[in-house]
Structures are given as structure tokens and as C-alpha cells.
Automatic annotation (TrEMBL):
<keyword id="KW-0808">Transferase</keyword>
<dbReference type="InterPro" id="IPR018300">
    <property type="entry name" value="Aminotrans_IV_CS"/>
</dbReference>
<dbReference type="InterPro" id="IPR005786">
    <property type="entry name" value="B_amino_transII"/>
</dbReference>
<dbReference type="GO" id="GO:0008652">
    <property type="term" value="P:amino acid biosynthetic process"/>
</dbReference>
<dbReference type="InterPro" id="IPR033939">
    <property type="entry name" value="BCAT_family"/>
</dbReference>
<dbReference type="InterPro" id="IPR036038">
    <property type="entry name" value="Aminotransferase-like"/>
</dbReference>
<comment type="similarity">
    <text>Belongs to the class-IV pyridoxal-phosphate-dependent aminotransferase family.</text>
</comment>
<protein>
    <recommendedName>
        <fullName>Branched-chain-amino-acid aminotransferase</fullName>
        <ecNumber>2.6.1.42</ecNumber>
    </recommendedName>
</protein>
<dbReference type="InterPro" id="IPR001544">
    <property type="entry name" value="Aminotrans_IV"/>
</dbReference>
<keyword id="KW-0663">Pyridoxal phosphate</keyword>
<dbReference type="GO" id="GO:0009507">
    <property type="term" value="C:chloroplast"/>
</dbReference>
<dbReference type="InterPro" id="IPR043131">
    <property type="entry name" value="BCAT-like_N"/>
</dbReference>
<feature type="modified residue" description="N6-(pyridoxal phosphate)lysine">
    <location>
        <position position="204"/>
    </location>
</feature>
<keyword id="KW-0100">Branched-chain amino acid biosynthesis</keyword>
<dbReference type="Pfam" id="PF01063">
    <property type="entry name" value="Aminotran_4"/>
</dbReference>
<keyword id="KW-0032">Aminotransferase</keyword>
<dbReference type="GO" id="GO:0004084">
    <property type="term" value="F:branched-chain-amino-acid transaminase activity"/>
</dbReference>
Amino acid sequence: GINTRCNAVLSNSSSTETTEYADIDWDSIGFGLKSTDYMYVMKCNLDGEFSKGELQRFGNLEVSPSAGVLNYGQGLFEGMKAYRKQDGKTILLFRPEENANRMRFGADRMCMPAPTVEQFIEAVKATVLANKRWIPPPGKGSLYIRPLLMGTGAVLGLAPAPEYTFLVYVSPVGNYFKEGVAPINLIVESEFHRATPGGTGGVKTIGNYAAVLKAQSIAKAKGYSDVLYLDCVYKRFLEEVSSCNIFIVKDNVISTPEIKGTILPGITRKSIIDVARTQGFQVEERNVTVDELLEADEVFCTGTAVVVSPVGSITYKGKRVSYGEGSFGPVSEKVYTVLTSLQMGLSEDNMNWTVNL
Ligand code: COI
């Protein structure tokens, strides 16, 4: 149902934006920001309730230099995608209530009020529809949706901010890694860690992503696509990659690190587990060791941005292990195809995961 406190108000609409598609080269979009037409902004007043959300022209924000998010990192984000179906008109969202609930869970950890599930979904729908001409043609990519929740009220001493802003912006995207759909090459990180027990690794706080930049840039400078993190206690169990979750396949059994507070509970991760089980695969969520990784038949990553990315090689303590022949392994290809066909509306959604716009 539509929450009355979050009715969108469309201001400054311009006639140039009624054309079917934005004028960009849809064959080379990659994963960089393209400024789109509108963003959704909703503020939370002192009583902890979000109200009066509205669409505004996409543009810079004005915030206090003392904002909680700028000074103490009080912020969360989400990642979602909208696809255009083959008919070019129907728009599909994927499990938006999962992102809404994850933001609410993270907000509790970060001492922030959060929009209700209904407010979150209405804001996402309004933003996608207002930027419809930026949704790529079928088969050319998706509209990436980035909801943000941040402490925008001024603080000086360390404390939760007195005011919050929920914002949704979008950008058309193609493949996340420069490799495109080709396998990525990962290096196991032995020095830096992404998360600690009792920390915030299990929520989508902005600081988790700043904390991986150092290891990621060192790895990229050496030619790797990204970094795979190990647990910080035993330095032996797989956690995740900077921007996605990890899976291994051995003798047709699929395994992935279990959710235990230091791993981001990915919605693509969870969906791949369900898809794989539906396809008859055994899936185990458990501790997965780095030794098992090196002996796996297939390795792949999952995330909203990366979708399902095959891993072509892993380097650990100077030793490089390769998988596959420069493309998907059979198990990862199967789960990738089933999931993406459902997300793009190419197959029947018998999981009831998509939302039509
Ligand atoms: C996503 O996959 O949507 C994320 O939020 C990860 C981000 C690093 C791009």
C-alpha cells in the first residue's frame, strides 16, 4: 500500500525527458555514474519518523560540514537493479523488500531511524519511474538503484545525528568488472581484514567499503580484479570479496561462507542458494577454508552489482590456482542463467521474486 507520508511530488518536469530512451551509447555503459534526471529525498525529523519524500532534480546536496555521516561515517547504502523486459515497457524490480529490511536491520546497528518497508519500496518505484528513459534496452544492462541512509544532522561530540536523510538515485549500468563477463582474477588478502567479530561487517555501512580500498588498490596495481578476505581470527576461513560474496563448487556441491556477522548477507547470495537448491544442487552454508578454495572445481562471486562472476584464478601466498577454460564452469553457468532469466523476465518467475512496474 502507498504510505501517505511518502507521496512523491514531481517538480520541474521537463518535456525533453519524455523521449523513450536517453541519448547515450547503450553498448558501452560499464559501471560508472551517469547523471540521471531525478533523485528521491526524504528527511527524518526529531521524532524519528520519515515524512514528505519527494522527487528532486538529480544534483548535489547541501549538508552541514558537521553532518554525522561526514564526520563519523553514520551511513548505510543499498544496491538494487531494475531491468526492462523484452517488450521494452515492463520494468522489473528484484526482491525490493529484502533491501528495505536489510536497511532497517543495518540502521538499528548504526543507531539510525529507517524508512518503513513501504516507504522504501515506494521511493524506489518513484525514482525508477521518474528515470525510466535511463533504463537500458533489454539485453544492454540494467538501472542500478542506490538507496542511501545518512545522518545529515550536525554533531560535534560523538553521538547519533539529530536528523537523517534517505535518498535514492539511479544510474544505468553494464558489467561491473572491466573483464566483462570473462572470469576475474582474485588475490587472497593476508594482511588486511574487512570485518571483525562484533563489528559492522554484516551490515551495509559505508565505512566497510572505505576500509577495503587500500587492499583493493594494491591488488589492482598488481593486475588482479579484486581481493578475497579471510577471517581475522584464524586467517583461514573465507569471508568475501570487496564488493561481493564468494561460492565454491566441489563435486557438484556448492558451498559458501555462512552468515555470522562478519559477512554481508547478500540478496543475490541468498537467491543463488535458493535457485541452486531448486535446480537439485546440494548447498552448504558453513566455514569454508582457503585450502578448499584452492582445490575447488569452480569458484564464483555473487552480488547485485557483479551479478554472478566466474573466478578464473586465485592467488594465495604467491601460488596461483586456475579454474575453468576462460569462461563459466557448468554449475555457475547454470545458476547464473536461471537467476538472470528470472530477473530479466525471460523465464517465468516461479519464486515470486520480481515486482512489475
Ligand atoms: C552491490 O552489489 O550492489 C553493492 O552494493 C556493492 C558495491 C561495492 C557496488
